[in-house]
# Entry
Amino acid sequence: MSAPPKRSSSPQRLIILIGCYTILLAASFFLSFQLRFDFNVEKNGPQWVNKVQWYLLWVVPMELMALYAFGQFRGFLSYFRTPDLLRVFGSFAVVTGLMVVMWMIPPSGTIPFSNFEMPPRAVIVANLLVSTMAVATFRVILRVYRERYLSGHAEGKTANLRRVAIVGAGDVGAAVAVDLMAKRGLGLKPVVFLDDDDTKHGHEIHGVPVADSPDQLAAVCNDYEVEHVVIALPARAHRRMREVIALTKSLGLVTEIVPSMWDLASGRVQASQIRPVELEDLLGRDPVSLDSELIRDMIQDRVVLVTGAGGSIGAELCRQIANRSPTRLILVDHSEVQMFQIEQEMIGLGHGSIVLPFVGSVLDRQRMSWILQTYKPTLIFHAAAHKHVPMMEHQPVEALRNNTVGTYQLAQLAAQYQVHKFVLVSTDKAINPTSVMGCSKRLAELGLQATQQTPGNTTVFCAVRFGNVLGSSGSVIPTFKRQIAEGGPVTVTHPDVMRYFMTIPESVGLILQAATQANGGEIFVLDMGQPIKIVDVARQLIELSGFRSGIDIEIKYVGLRPGEKLFEEIQHKGEQFVDTSHQRIFRFTANAPTPEQAQDWMNQLAEQLVPGRRNEVKQFLTKLVPEYTPFLE
# Structure
């Protein structure tokens, strides 16, 4: 196997760049002179030929230095966008300005360069335009060549391109069209736009016509021989997106969707990186509007600690917190594997200098005390928990140790070391619980509220409840996808069971927003929209996978598992609703136990936490949480 070719060294690359730009700039300046004299420089006097040669000796080096100052020697010639065009024009504009100033200085023996012979004014102005056009054209040609013939997207045959209809003729749709036309190796050719804005109909975007509204998809696809549909609708248009997807499915068209505008704007993905339609696209709601300044003010230049940092919610907390400039981000997780993964991700995202990972359990009081005493976090986001309802139902002792005792111990340490704010990630299953997991979280909330009232406490404690999170570990979605991949059946517990769903970024964004509003002792509940039947989720996933529900893939009802409810609630009995400044966040307050009561509960609970006493432990919990309905084995 031959060795890969070596890349040009930096000096070689610089010489190539100087050579290319020198030829372009010299040709541009000569053309500017020809334009000034109607392409008859020689007939206007032989002295002009000599003058052109003289001007080239100092004009071209000035322009080269300007291009260098504007960063045009640091990039690759074949990468060229609007910002590069502006920098090229800016560099030549600076040179033009200097030449105009020098031209206007009257001859004098005392003023430097005043006797310097300058080109005619028309040549100076023409050279600005011609040089910019020459460099821009050269760079665009190189970019097109790279994208179409050198990049990986250009590999393979491009003659049999699939004809694509783009639904959405806005900024994202236009970006998709440009990217697909540039990268023919993707095998997709945009031939028509569809958009609900009838003022766009009959016009073209990048040479692609805007034919009609998406409702006319069948007729348009027939007229334009479309076999592939790309959806480029705004993120807020979820209802319209569902309608379009249903229509494309009924027509048997391959349907894909573009990344969100957030991902496009951040540069993480390109418009051409279309993907299959996911369940999140169908279940989504209007994007959450966050007060980013409040969140940044809470986090910036502070030490933040996240427990359960390797889990689904904990990892997203780390991502969003790291983007808001904390001085240090401390990660705690009992799983070495998950800790390694989130640490490597943080390093890859450029946050390695602020991340400090610790493998350990929140139940290890000595270790957690050392971390808090040594690094003095200002904020703690407590996401560490056992959360799988059926699994914890059979081992209530472990659920209570981790979720209840661990939270209470960590809260006491936070108060002892004067942490400014402590946020518990809770669950809607803590409301009138029927499971050990939900009951353990309810006790954790009560322990937090009691700690808030401890004499001399300065820490602000709060809890944030939300429901099922799409894509999190243990979520029903990965289970359904696995069952579909295996050919079915897809198992649903009950035809009427309903759950609230949120995406991971959405739920974490609202956790951070709720934390900014905490004054102490509150329980925040996130607006999760309308609950969705689990069987409907199963049907949609089956259809998105290209199968027919009940025909290709069977849905099988297996009955509610121990500890499960038909539906979840958002408000506990005795909790009072209080408005917040955010329409998607609800605040609830209630009479909390005293610190003495909570400590007594924890002492009694510690005596009960003996392995093998499942039913006894569950029956004891009814004394602490009267609304708890245990499942006895």
Summary: The chain has a mean pLDDT of 80. The two ends are 65 Å apart (CA to CA). The first helix runs from residue 10 to 36. The chain has three domains: 12-150, 162-277, 297-469+500-530+569-624.
